[in-house]
Amino acid sequence: MDGLRHDLDLLWLRLHQALPWLEAWETWLRTPQGLAAGGGAVALLVAMLVLWRHWRRGQLSRAAARTLRREARGFERAGEWRAAGNAWRRLGKARKALAAYRRGGHHDAAARLLLDLGRRREAKEAARKGAAWGLYARLCDEDGEHQAAARAYLQADQLYAAALSLEKAGDALAAARTYRRAGMLDKALELALKSDAEGSAGLLESLVRRAGAGAARRRGSAVERGLRRAVELRLAAGEAERAYRLAADCERLDLALPIARRHLPPSADVAEAFARQGLLADAAELYQRLGDEEQAALYYGEHCAERGANAEAAPWFERAGRWDAAAEHWAAAGQLERAAAAYEKAGDYRQAARFYGQLGDRERQRLLEDRAAASDPLSEVGLDPAAPTSSLLEPPAGAGLSTPVPPAAGSIDAQARYVAEAELGRGAMGIVYRARDTILDRPVALKLLPRELSEAPADEVLKEARAAARLSHPNIVQVFDAGRGPRGFFIVMELVAGSNFAVHLEHHRLDLAEAVRIGRQICAALGHAHERQIVHRDLKPSNLLWTTAEQIKLTDFGLARAFEAAHGGVMTRPAGTPCYMAPEQIQGGKIDPRTDLYSLGCVLFELLVHRPPFQGERAIYDQLHTPPPDPRQADPRVPDVLADLILRCLAKEPDQRPASAAAIDRELAALAPLGSDGGMMAGR
Length: 684
What we know:
Layout (H helix, E strand, L loop, with lengths): L1 H28 L2 H46 L3 H10 L3 H10 L3 H10 L3 H10 L3 H10 L3 H10 L3 H10 L3 H10 L3 H10 L5 H12 L1 H4 L5 H15 L3 H10 L3 H11 L4 H9 L3 H11 L2 H14 L3 H10 L3 H10 L3 H11 L2 H11 L2 H14 L38 H4 E10 L2 E8 L4 E7 L9 H12 L9 E7 L2 E7 L3 E3 H7 L4 H20 L12 E4 L4 E3 L4 H8 L16 H4 L6 H17 L9 H7 L5 H4 L5 H10 L11 H11 L13
Helix pairs in contact: 1-2, 2-3, 3-4, 4-5, 5-6, 6-7, 7-8, 8-9, 9-10, 10-11, 11-12, 11-14, 12-14, 14-15, 15-16, 17-18, 18-19, 19-20, 20-21, 21-22, 22-23, 23-24, 26-29, 28-31, 28-35, 31-34
């Protein structure tokens, strides 16, 4: 019965809600328009309904109230105090509702009711007791109690609102920390930069490290400004070591090295940091202060060599015990007698004999040639150490094969297979000889790798040779064979008729069409290698061969990687050539195909401008920190689209470079028609 009465009460409640509409209708029907539309009968009917409404309203209100009272008391008996409070509140019984809420410990509901009643102070206290932190925080904020509001928002895990309250309270440091917790690093940095409070240096350092070295290298960014401010605060606090370490870890040696120079005692780590930046004289000075004269002499020698001061470099290399380097620089300085003596001390008897021969000392020449015959590493791979040497250029006759030939079978004696005929050239990556393959009866190029590779694990070095041997492309020098004798590693390659491209470039100025054509050939070679997950790591003009057919062939794949393997993956200076090295390679970072694309940008720049973008003793520093020069500044005839392509290749961040060698080739292909007349002006 009670249930039926409850349902009827709800029905009357719905009708009660509809009656205001009927009353409005009645009013309209009394107007002339209503009378014309509905007539008097309808108006009379509606009037009767309205009268009935007024009579029933009292009945309905009393019935609904009875129902709610029964519900409220039932909830109280059941101990459901929140529901009881809600029922009393609907009845307008605020005092009973508050009592129910408080008895049940529902202070949050009591707080909202008190707020509706205008009892703000009581509402705030109830919100605090009921842990209604969001409501309590809002009330505190409205009352100007921003610190209390921030604490409440933190309790409610509303980090952004808490940070805003802390800003209003003027606590920029705490607000910045809260923004950091909320993941809003830019806002956190903005506030931390404004704060002079103790602890802001630590917060800034945390934010900068969290953003990463890449962000810290972007000039003018909030992260970069945060780094500078953190370094400044650390120095002001007398924490020079922490300031240096932060700058160095963020790969900002331009900030770290002045700190080291002015505030830190000398150390080998700092000296090597100077060397990595190309500041070789500073590195040498630090090693001198450390008492390491040998390492100091080595860096002084490299410093002089980079400036082209060969006569100054050679004595330093002698003091460092680097007789081979000393000999090369004495020879370059034209001091043949000192070069001969240095080659002899280096154990390079063949070169020493050659120089003594030029000096007319035949007796010394013969003595050293005999020594060379007994100890020359060429004898270890069956080469004739007494074979005459020729010029660096291979004559057109007897051009090398382009068809891949399988490596020698394991049963063939490599020491009897290759016979040297002439030296073709030498450099940092070894000595190249024209030789003859006695098994296949064909000319080949044999490269004897530097002695420093002799201690490298054979599988590491030969792995690079095997990878290079898998490359078969018209623009890549084919590798035929490789091995290790008792005195070192050797690689056998196709013999290319032509010259070193670096030599060609010294004597020829390229027009646009020729530069684009050569660039596309390099792209083709790199694309072929990159598709097979092989990165060159040392792309430069001297690793390009210029054939008699005026085609490019890329050589020395994997040798830079082999040098790193020889040093156990740890080198004080990375393998490669500074003028063409990508920033990540200089810093020992991740190497991938985009590293070669940076070097390609350097080569393209040189094809057009006749010099690399960065050179000299500052090359390493500039590769890391100096924006690349626009090739149009050196030659205004360089087309805009080509200049833009080169500048994108030279981006410091790998992600900002073109996607692949194939992508660069497509852009160069679009440029090819522009240079069809051979002039650069066509592209503008």
